[in-house]
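In response to the reviewer comment on reproducibility (Comment 2.3), we provide here a single inverse folding case reported in full, input and output, so that an independent group could reproduce the run without further information from us. The structure tokens appear first.
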């Protein structure tokens, strides 16, 4: 990012919250939630994520311990003021809440038992959803006119391309807790409840060759968003549309291969698990106590983190040398812009776990350990006016990624 681009970036981050809310428009108008709890039932390989809080929600803000002169790159998503919808809860980490975001946003949805996120589609955003807890059923009509339904449970991941009609229904006895990532800084959608009632009755009945009185008049009552699903014991006609393969849009956590590092483990979603994956991916990162996600950057790729468990310190450096550090706790969010050098360090002598989302299908990275390995010691030392000898003595370990603890 060059100097003019950085000035524009920081200027945007300092813009008023009112301006960003106005840009959101009707997409989130009237949406709201109350306190939510994410259980840790344990469908995750390598351990269960004890996510979230039963505390009374407080207004959201930056994560704790923030230092540095830049606008905040963190947000207390789970602690933010919830907004209530018809049968659930939503919390947002979009441009309105985090003006530093680029090309990505989060929505935390809670769907009550017996309810569903109503049928909808997204204007330009792809959607990548992780089931944090609960059980549900996914309904999806893709852009080729193919239809599928499938069940999802804790740890499962669902990808929905932009423009595909879809719905999530809670099929369990407890709340269905979802973390949705979008390939845009907002999460605009078109919902049936706010679209179809605006058409004349003839327009919504003629496509299937029935008279206008075959359906009741659809009430104009605003965006339902998450709605109670009425009980139905009558006949449900099977779809006559071509069937879509659910494996193209869905994977279980267990299907994602585990990769071991000196300081922990990672599970990286790829097209090997979800072939339709586009513009987004997610890595589950389990960092051991006293480990370090070493200083690194992502070429051309933004990163948005959601903390599942533990406390971690983030540190990042802007292209003009400004520094910010802060601490995230379960339910907090942290954003790392493309190409900015940053690190993550678990605190309190305890492990830490994150869902790390990227604005590409691969979280490409370059590491400090690779700098030490690749460049001649005299070139590294020249940046600091120091003797090359200590740099020449450093071991070459390739891409360390997650460094283990070091005994002094």
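Designed residues, in position order:
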């Amino acid at each position: 990012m060059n100097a003019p681009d950085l000035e524009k970036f920081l200027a945007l981050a300092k813009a008023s919250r009112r301006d960003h809310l106005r840009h959101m428009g009707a997409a989130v108008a009237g949406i709201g939630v109350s306190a939510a709890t994410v259980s840790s039932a344990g469908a995750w390989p390598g351990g269960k994520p004890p996510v979230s809080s039963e505390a009374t929600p407080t207004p959201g803000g930056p994560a704790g311990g923030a230092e540095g002169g830049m606008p905040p790159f963190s947000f207390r998503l789970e602690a933010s003021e919830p907004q209530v919808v018809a049968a659930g809860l939503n919390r947002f980490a979009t441009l309105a809440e985090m003006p530093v975001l680029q090309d990505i946003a989060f929505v935390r949805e809670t769907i009550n038992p017996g309810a569903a996120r109503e049928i909808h589609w997204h204007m330009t955003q792809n959607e990548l959803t992780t089931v944090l807890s609960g059980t549900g059923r996914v309904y999806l009509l893709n852009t080729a006119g193919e239809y599928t339904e499938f069940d999802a449970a804790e740890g499962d991941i669902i990808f929905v391309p932009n423009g595909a009609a879809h719905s999530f229904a809670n099929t369990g006895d407890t709340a269905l807790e979802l973390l949705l990532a979008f390939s845009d800084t907002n999460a605009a959608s078109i919902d049936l409840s706010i679209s179809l009632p605006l058409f004349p009755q003839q327009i919504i009945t003629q496509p299937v060759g029935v008279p206008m009185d075959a359906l009741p008049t659809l009430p104009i009552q605003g965006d339902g968003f998450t709605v109670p699903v009425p009980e139905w014991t009558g006949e449900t006609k099977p779809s006559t549309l071509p069937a879509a393969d659910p494996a193209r849009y869905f994977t279980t956590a267990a299907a994602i291969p585990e990769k071991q590092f000196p300081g922990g483990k990672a599970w990286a979603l790829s097209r090997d698990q979800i072939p339709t994956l586009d513009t987004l991916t997610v890595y589950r990162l389990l960092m051991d106590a006293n480990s370090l996600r070493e200083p690194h950057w992502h070429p051309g790729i933004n990163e948005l983190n959601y903390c599942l468990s533990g406390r971690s310190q983030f540190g990042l450096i802007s292209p003009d040398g400004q520094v910010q550090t802060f601490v995230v706790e379960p339910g907090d969010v942290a954003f790392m812009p493309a190409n900015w050098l940053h690190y993550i360090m678990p605190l309190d002598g305890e492990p830490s776990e994150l869902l790390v989302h990227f604005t590409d299908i691969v979280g490409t990275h370059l590491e400090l350990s690779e700098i030490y390995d690749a460049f001649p010691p005299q070139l590294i030392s020249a940046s600091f006016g120091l003797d090359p000898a200590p740099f020449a003595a450093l071991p070459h370990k390739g891409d360390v990624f997650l460094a283990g603890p070091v005994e002094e």
